[in-house]
Amino acid sequence: MTLRHTRSSNYPEWYQEVITVSNMAEGSVSPGCMIIKPWGYGIWSRIQRTLDEMFSASGHENYYFPMFIPLSFFQKEADHVEGFAKEMALVTHSKLRKNEEGELIPDGVLEEPLVVRPTSETIIADAFSKWVVSYRDLPILMNQWANVVRWEMRPRLFLRTREFLWQEGHTVHASSVEAEAETEQMLEIYRIMCEESMAVPVITGEKPVHEKFPGAVKTLCIEAMMQDGKALQAGTSHYLGQNFSRPANISFQNKEGEREYAYTTSWGVSTRLVGGLLMSHADDEGMNTPPRVSPYQVIIVPMVKDESKREAIMGYISRIEEGLRSQSAFGEKIRFKTDKRNKDSVDKYWEWARKGAPVICEIGERDVLGEKVMSKIRCRINTTEHKKLLSFNEFISTIGKLLETIQSEMYEKAKVRLKKNIRTDIKTMSSFREYFAEKSGWVDDKERSHPAFVLGKWSGDETTLPLLKELGVSIRCIPFSYQDGEEGECILSGKPAIKNVIFARSY
Amino acid sequence: MTLRHTRSSNYPEWYQEVITVSNMAEGSVSPGCMIIKPWGYGIWSRIQRTLDEMFSASGHENYYFPMFIPLSFFQKEADHVEGFAKEMALVTHSKLRKNEEGELIPDGVLEEPLVVRPTSETIIADAFSKWVVSYRDLPILMNQWANVVRWEMRPRLFLRTREFLWQEGHTVHASSVEAEAETEQMLEIYRIMCEESMAVPVITGEKPVHEKFPGAVKTLCIEAMMQDGKALQAGTSHYLGQNFSRPANISFQNKEGEREYAYTTSWGVSTRLVGGLLMSHADDEGMNTPPRVSPYQVIIVPMVKDESKREAIMGYISRIEEGLRSQSAFGEKIRFKTDKRNKDSVDKYWEWARKGAPVICEIGERDVLGEKVMSKIRCRINTTEHKKLLSFNEFISTIGKLLETIQSEMYEKAKVRLKKNIRTDIKTMSSFREYFAEKSGWVDDKERSHPAFVLGKWSGDETTLPLLKELGVSIRCIPFSYQDGEEGECILSGKPAIKNVIFARSY
User: Fold this and answer.
1) Which residues on A lie below 8 Å from B59 (Cβ)?
2) Is the CB of residue B187 less than 8 Å from the CB of residue B269?
3) Chain A residue with Cα closest to B94
């Protein structure tokens, strides 16, 4: 059953429809904010747990800082406040009173307005300045899981909402070398999580100067390709140098007994990853959720046509559950659920199919009699067949492997798409302009071609940026790979250039 | 090493000092808010995970709702808005601009002010009204983990901060019977978590009418006794009846085809539990963290005096770690950590002792030679000895049991204190007044006596409340247990009364 909107007919509407039918999230009466529903929240929880374990294994500890930042603190770093001033929610009052008409209106004006955190560098830097005295106190490696607010004017579910959930890491080091190594390490952790857990291949690189985080010395990023060829910035890791430690006075006595400003980093990923997951794997029938981040990996739907057979069917399902409990995938217990709701079983099948539950087993009378398990593989890619009728023993003994195969095939499919859609043969502005003249759209469309990524030379000259802006294109990153070290001509200006960059439209 | 402040010398300062020395949290530049640090956050994470598993096992799913609630939504239930109007943070602007003096000031006035959620009944009820159509859609069993804001004027770390972390459950049911059963079930889950995981005994009961949640039909609660005899409301579960479903129009078609308003509940616990944990178990040397909620259960501190022996000591510690990895406590792997920081080992020992890590092993040269493990038991209660020098094998094979014993002894100790400090012999206002004439203070103090809980009759007449207020006492709950069904005289008014209630000062 194809959705009303498909990737080729209307990509943005398709995105919205997949979210609706998979019941991952919905809009809210709170303008520009979203309600994250169990399937969407469950995916985020899997991402969260995976990252949390990697952060902990690399020595980071969880803190929680206040979400209200006094305005004066936010102003300490000029570029930083500049970067966020246009999208800040401000708390100005602390209670309500009734006016003469009996309406409740804000009262209790605060002495100083409070910014609802769009990011926490400033308030955390202030705490670091009190905690750090000597080199022996370093490094400080912290992370927090929190909600943040950026006043988006064109909100889209998961990709751009006014409030979203994220983690933000903040670290302090005694040397720039160590801080830069941390910046790289965290980017690598993000890459591993995206590629291994989410099955989303990414390009790692550095942002050009004009795209870096407000206040950073340099910003590293991972960029993923969505099915419409647009780039999604999936995570960033910032080397902040002494830009925040100077105004906040994070200084320490070094081994030589001298006072020195510390070096800081920050890094984050957010619930926008869930939107990126969707646009990497969903198809015209709904979501496909990679097993590693899927809230449930196996769904069992009882098919009871004859009520007198219910007991036998449910008994057989108990045996399947027991079998599943004994198996593992990716070194963890298998997450399964039997859908016992009092609803039509075909409707139930489609609910789970739309959510992209990796494997859905429909168990009816015939399966009980034949000791079989009918499993439908929703996340079917390449070689994996859609439907399998296996014996009980075969199903139980191969389910772990099947989930692992589904995961790796999903990754391979996305990787092939990424590779196929990086153009490397565009050398001149006219061919560049011609390539991006097409509208963005489903890159696997057989009827029309759509632009995606261009890998090519750039001079670094920012006067070329208006040309890009005109085409709705930006420089996503200077990728770590794909560098040949050769001098060539900047696509945009014809000037000499050494670095290759990724040009693309983006979310 | 006794702290500067003790429970008997200055209980409030002692509380603050324990938080400081255990490094669980600290104040912040954001007025009235706190920074939760790794030991405090780690305890909260354990509580969170325990509850989350119990919520899930009882069929609840996690959602995430926007934290900004349009003011008009908040006003739908009159008692509700009344209850929170005096402590609401209001967002009124969405950006900054520079004024003539070049100062940044709030700009972009919102059409409608947004309330930063103090609780989410109203915005969630609105979503429920859209989701619920037929009885087949019920029940809806949801929970969310979130931050909330209540503009406290006298903030105290963990107990009362303007922003705090919590979970709030919200459910919708087709009948009042089912909704009331849910309200009771969730209270029972809170009781189990407090008593079994936090080792904090609680009294379960119902709030008197004047103490119920604004908008609720009835509020159930768990009340714990702190070491100064004051009560801490540790969790509440509200039966909301149709009070929120009527104004929000949460209605459904019942089995008979008729339209009916649904019945809702809500329930929550917050980071104030961490404050309650401290005041249940900490002593004059610092925190004692019950093993089940302790971020680490065993800490290993290498004692290297002679650098040439470092390798041997660290090698031996690796063997201990390996041994610990093979053991479990409470059906889970043991959480341990070796403190390898480049600091004085005595200082390290005291850091962990102040945090109340249940077992701290100091491993030096002598232990390596003798194949021994010197373990100090921080959370020592009753029979458990403070120091043990065990053979390697004995230590490893008994550690799980030891942690379980520590846990149960901590619970027993708190339970004995609770029972001992409930006065049941106070029958008249004069003896009641005399009892509460004493200031609250450490109830185990041998020098002075301090009031704690009084269990006695109350008529239910609210004109008696000013008498209580004068003494700083409140009615904590009508306990489910401790009811004799006998008619007696109300302590406060002398009028006929049947119900026993708990009177106490409180946090």
Assistant:
1) none
2) no
3) A89
A162 to chain B, closest Cα gap in Å: 9
Q: Which residue of B has its CA nearest to A113?
A: B106
Give yes or no for B121 touching A (CB within 8 A). Answer: no
Which chain B residues are Cβ-neighbours of A87 within 8 angstroms? 94-95
For residues A137 and A140, what is the distance between their CA atoms, to the nearest angstrom?
A: 7
Per-position b or e across A145-181, b if 16+ CB within 10 A of its CB = bbbbbbbbeebbbbbbbbbbbbbbbbbbbbeeebbbe
d(CA B195, CA B234): 11
In sequence order, the β-bridge partners of residue A374 are A362, A389
Contact call for residues B406 and B358 (beta carbons, < 8 A) = yes
Put simply, whether B20 touches A (Cβ < 8 Å) is no
Name which of A274, A258, A336 is nearest A301 in CA terms: A336
pLDDT per residue rounded down to tens, chain B (507 residues): 899 999 999 999 999 999 999 999 999 999 999 999 999 999 999 999 999 999 999 999 999 999 999 999 888 877 888 889 999 999 999 999 999 988 899 999 999 999 999 999 999 999 999 999 999 999 999 999 999 999 999 999 999 999 999 999 999 999 999 999 999 999 999 999 999 999 999 999 999 999 999 999 999 999 999 999 999 999 999 999 999 999 999 999 999 999 999 999 999 999 999 999 999 999 999 999 999 999 999 999 999 999 999 999 999 999 999 999 999 999 999 999 999 998 899 999 999 999 999 999 999 999 998 888 888 877 655 445 678 889 999 999 999 999 999 999 999 999 999 999 999 999 999 999 999 999 999 999 999 999 999 999 999 999 999 999 999 999 999 999 999 988 999 999 999 999 999 999 999
Task: Number of helices (H) and strands (E) in chain B: give both, helices first.
Answer: 14, 27
Helix, strand, coil proportions of chain B in percent (round to 5)? Answer: 35, 30, 35
Amino acid at A454: V
Question: Is B148 an 8 Å CB contact of chain A?
Answer: no
- Cβ separation B123–A89 shorter than 8 A: no
Cβ distance of A64 and B165 shorter than 8 Å: yes
Terminal Cα-to-Cα distance of chain A (whole angstroms): 28
CA distance A234 to chain B (A): 21
Chain A nearest-CA residue for B339: A59
B90:A106 CB<8 A: yes
Whole-angstrom CA distances from B293 to A46, B17, B114, B505 are 22, 21, 36, 27
Q: What is the ipTM of this complex?
A: 0.96
The pair of three-digit structure tokens given for residue B476, joined into one six-digit string: 């904590």
Identity (one letter) of the amino acid at A99?
N
> Measured between CB atoms, does A29 come within 8 Å of chain B?
yes
For residues B239 and B212, give the distance between their C-alpha atoms in angstroms, rounded to a whole number.
Answer: 10
Read off φ and ψ for residue A92, nearest 5 degrees.
Answer: -125, -15
d(CA B195, CA B476): 19
Structure-token pair, residue A377: 């593989």
DSSP B440: P
DSSP symbol at B484 = -
Distance from CA of B159 to the nearest CA of A (A): 15
- Chain A and chain B share a number of CB contacts under 8 A equal to 170
Interchain contact A68–B (C-beta under 8 A): yes
Helix (H) or strand (E) holding A97: strand A90-98
pTM: 0.96
Task: Assess contact for B417 and B227: CB atoms under 8 A.
Answer: yes
**For residue A265, how many C-alpha atoms fall within 13 Å in the half-sphere facing its CB?**
31
State the nearest Cα–Cα gap between B54 and chain A, in angstroms.
Answer: 16
Q: Which of B36, B64, B136 is nearest residue A342 as measured by Cβ atoms?
A: B136
